[in-house]
Amino acid sequence: MVHCLLTPVVISLFPDIIPYLPGDASFHRLLAVGIVLFGFVGFVPGYMVHRRKPLLALIGIGMCLILVVAWSGEGLNRALELVLSVGGSLLLVAAHLLNRSFCRECRICKDDPDNCHTTQVASLESDLS
Question: Is the full-model pTM beyond 0.70?
Fold first, then answer.
């Protein structure tokens, strides 16, 4: 998440570093795969706690946008590439923030299961009845 947020800021504050950044397509593809894998590994443990399926769509779309940009090569114009990559990054950030908030909510539910709105705790309560 930090990479997605700080990289555009650092590049905009220090544009002289652009020539020193790797610019070939294979590096960008490797970076995109790393971002997707790192994001997925960070997302799964929280999802296993609350199991809110709409978050799967959010993180899936974000990951797909990042991978589409990485594999499109020169097929996209710069503006569309920027919109898709920033949009994908923002979707990943939003999914991770929501994931964390739902996990915190589930931890609160352990203390007060009557007010829980997550599927996991609700299904546990029905199994116990």
Answer: no
